[in-house]
């Protein structure tokens, strides 16, 4: 806005109504009696004076005189306009973790940080503003507008729902973009970590505050025979003793209620059992500084039994394998189309989605005591030690597309081949009579891994209870998958990918529909770093660069206004002379 150094000069605008009055009166004539009008030159018939009001006809010279008058008054006030020229670009790193939602004194850390940013932009101008959301994985927001209005629109994506904030990576990304040409502003609720000293060009603003808070940092629900075992862990993340109430509901009914009194940093763990057919378990803590970690949901875990068909001709081997499968708790005999077939010799034609294990007994077994070379990234090898084991193998695998999973030197003992529609065909080379693997703990581990791996590829969710930010895989076998989540969130899977993977955007209960079937999916925060608010603080560290401030330059407009008024006066004189010349 203009700044008038001499605002009292505006009183000169009082001459405007005087000018209007002059033109209004000059158009009224007094009557004179004359003998004759014969020798008069009358280029135009003057208006007759009377009581009737007529519209005032103002010539163009009037408007020019009015403009001259206004320009002279403005020039007398000595107006100065402050021209704000853009400074350096600004890169803002936004802590997108849940702890920024902690409320203290009626405001959240996010709201206080946003006010600091807006105040900065009103005081100092930047040529561009870039935003980086520092969540579990930093990401940038589109746009570089530096005005507050456009900034607020872009900041709608700053929801503070991430289970963690990788500020180090986000600051590294901002520094790489900066190249000493931009300033970096970090908005968070924690003071700078040890080893990071914000200096010139890096400003760290912490908008947090230590508040009382207790939240869930651990929760699980697993199968345990005919019951489900539930586990809960609560942490006091505040600086003082915190008292709260824990309410557990199974479905809509209250299962248990407990009063908790926790010292700073104290944990409370609780294990309890619910029936296997129990619906979703909900645990709720009392209200405190951070509401997002006060609720957890535990959905029923998947109970997928793998149907296995045994086509083994060796009676002793078949009996041993069947007893081992029964001990896993994941086995059921196949009655129709099996999920897994363990056979000797040539296999019959099974459906495309059926997995097979071909058991090869070498005619001339070779005894191996090691070293064994397992593929530790393969789910079948998880937990195997093979220490002190004798393995009688030696028969070469003829299929060229088999990929070794376990080798003794350069001799493959277990191999796999991928087939269409996600099926797997495994080959075991093992002689029962001369080997000792079946007498070691690795034998049941191997078969449990086999059934668990196969069960994870059965239709449905692999896991029904996950942490916020984790990927969720759904095996659909060609049937359409739709997911409905909190706040009306929906997602439809691409049936061309099996399994399909998605990341739930926030904590809560989700309904995963696969064709006509549906399962509950529980997504919980369970982030100890966000529940612990004892390290929150408020303050500013670092300094802005000296030349980043928008330069204020005063521009004296009086001279220009005076020159413009002179031009208008010259135009007025020219107009008056032209009229007189025409009248002559």
Automatic annotation (TrEMBL):
Going by the UniProt record, its keywords in alphabetical order are: Membrane, Transmembrane, Transmembrane helix
Residue ranges of domain VWFA in the record = 90-189
Q: Which domain of life is it from?
A: Bacteria
InterPro entries named among the record's database cross-references = Aerotolerance_reg_N, VWF_A, vWFA_dom_sf
Q: Where does the record place the Aerotolerance regulator N-terminal domain?
A: 1-79
Membrane-crossing ranges are: 6-25, 60-78, 557-577
Give yes or no: UniProt keyword NAD.
no
Q: Does the keyword rRNA-binding apply?
A: no
Q: What is this protein called?
A: VWA domain-containing protein
Organism field: Limisphaera ngatamarikiensis
Traced from the root, the source organism's taxonomic lineage reads: Bacteria, Pseudomonadati, Verrucomicrobiota, Verrucomicrobiia, Limisphaerales
